[in-house]
Amino acid sequence: MVTQDKIESATPSVMSPATSDADTITPSPPSPSPLALKDANDPNNPKNWSMLRRLFITFIWIAGNLVASVSSSIFSSGAQAISEEFGVGPEVVTLGVSLFVVGYSVGPPFWSPISEQFGRRYPMLAGMALFTIFCIPVAVGKNLQTILVGRFLCGMTGVSPIALFGGGLVDIWHPEQRAIAMATVIGIVLGGPLLAPVMGNFITASHLGWRWTGWLSCIMGGSCTVLVFFGLPETYAPIILQKRQRLDPAFQIAPKETRRWRKFVRVYLVRPFVLLGTEPILVLMTLYQAFVYGILYIVFSSYPIIFREQRHWKLGLSSLPFLGMMVGVFIGSAMIVTRTVIAQQAHQKKMAEDSSGIPLSPAPERRLPLMMAGSVLLPIGLFIFGWTSAPDIPVVGMIIGSLFVGSGLLCIFVTAMTYILDVYSHVANSALGANTIVRSFFAAGFPLFASYMYHGLGVAWASSVLGFVSVAMIPIPIIFYKYGPRIRALSKNLMV
Q: Which residue windows does the record flag with biased composition (Polar residues) (predicted)?
């Protein structure tokens, strides 16, 4: 296996440090042989591929993430029908969503090292194919145990596009372009679960029944598998270089080095928790991101209480308010894309005015103002949503609140993700692994207590509790915006 640090030392224009954990490998001197990927115009460099081709690859990553995110929550649409069929309470059926998200946390430590060994294409293909297979027992299971196990396995395999898309985008886009692509993909990751109940409720209410929510996931997964098979090329530079070495004997790179499994254990299983115990930036950003991710999944239990139990809407219509939050998510995505374009233009202008010719490296904290805005929008939306929830108040108030929640949630989530990637670029796999594990457990746990909280406190006060916690977290991006450089300078795990 060609180690990442050797690739970077030879081809700095190709590999972004955002996908590297190379510090676990002892570097050796690079080969003196010329590497064509040094050439900024080398057609083998995925960043030099045509815009159309890179957009199509990004579309494939979007499709994979859409399949996974829709499937994560579509199961909640049939909760009442499933509980009646198997004679269990709705809280037990909620495990179908929670176990799927638990699979989200178990999968990345598996898919990330596989990606470093075999690239992006084949792990993505294997993940989507296995996801499609595991959707079948969910659709045909004769007992709840089979269905719940199938949901867990679907989450573990379906997380592959979510675990790999960051590296896939790093492979083909430059940093500022990457921010736009990432905002789009994460918008799908967050918007997909909100679209799923709308689809699922109408399917469940029709003659098809709740089992067709499983079949829909299976069909989507199968279609994406075909798309990956025919449309996704390999974009990971070490794999490209290995292939080139096999085809061209004159082309040599540094000697191959076998990576021992204990190093994988250290990078993907041990170091994430070490970082969580020693890095205040990662800890607070991860907790904030995990909290807003939990809010996303708590709505799948709270909306049926609000719109079906209290307002007595029919099954299909009761899911339409999810669209309000989804529109808010897309508004947040538009905010990030707009600000990124403006920042990119300002950076290019500054470079043009700089006569030194030295490339300027923007600080990671440049991203945080938008997170500050999101941290204010989120509690405002939660308070509006909660205190306009009474059945005698027009539903438009709750829709407006959900717009604020969706846009604030997206701004916080995307900005925190890109900030973590910027700060922990050389240990990004470990940092994102820790982040994924924590936020997935939050997302799995929140739906389990949502019913008790909303029934016990009422919609207004339950939403307010979430709003008060959101207010308490507002200082996090402000602190890092002001003191982030000093905190990074004190870290032993960062290259500052």
A: 10-26
- b/e burial code for range 361-386 (CB count within 10 A of at least 16 → b): eeebbebbbbbbbbbebbbbbbbbbb
Angle at 400 between CA 395 and CA 403, to 5 degrees: 130
Confidence of residue 399 (pLDDT cuts 50, 70, 90): very high
Tokens of residue 320, six digits = 């339409």
Task: State the CATH number of the domain containing residue 379.
Answer: 1.20.1250.20
Residue 205 inside a domain? The answer is yes
**To which residue do tokens 């190093």 refer?**
263
Residue 331 resides in a domain: yes
With tokens 């508004």, the residue in question is: 331
- Is 322 a domain residue? yes
Residue-wise pLDDT for 430-463, tens only, equals: 787 788 888 888 988 888 888 889 989 999 999 9
- Residue 150 · residue 140 · CB < 8 Å: no
Structural domain harbouring 76: 4-24+33-349+362-490
> How much is the average pLDDT of 146-164?
92
Q: What pLDDT sits at residue 355?
A: 61
Q: Distance between CA atoms of 443 and 477, rounded to whole angstroms?
A: 22
User: Measured at the alpha carbon of residue 492, what is the angle toward residues 491 and 493, in degrees to the nearest 5?
Assistant: 90
Question: Which backbone phi and psi does 143 adopt, to 5 degrees?
Answer: -140, 160
Total tally of structural domains belonging to the chain: 1
| 357 falls within a domain | no
